[in-house]
Design brief:
mainly alpha, 434 Repressor (Amino-terminal Domain), two-stranded antiparallel sheet
Length: 88
């Protein structure tokens, strides 16, 4: 089950929205739909389109496994998902 944003952690919602915007930009740059990002190249679905939407809008915190899948699917490094993201 995806982690939800915790309202008591300062800055968490802002951070998750920034990460989500970055992932969306990279996904769109590569011409992938949300459904394509959530599936592997053979079409096996690992993450539903609704999860991708919630993650891209900062409503859920993606796990490391999810970030690794998204990076693999977009053919980038996990670190590229966090470029220019500031924690403070």
């Amino acid at each position: 089950m995806p982690a939800r944003v915790h309202p008591d952690v300062p800055g968490e919602a802002r951070l998750l929205r920034a990460v989500g915007r970055r992932i969306r930009a990279l996904r769109e740059e590569r011409g992938l739909t949300m459904a394509e990002l959530g599936a592997n190249r053979r079409g096996v679905v690992y993450f539903e389109r609704q999860y991708i939407w919630k993650m891209e809008t900062g409503r859920v915190a993606p796990s490391l496994a999810a970030l690794a899948h998204f990076a693999r699917r977009m053919e980038i490094e996990i670190a590229d998902l966090l470029v220019d993201i500031r924690a403070s």
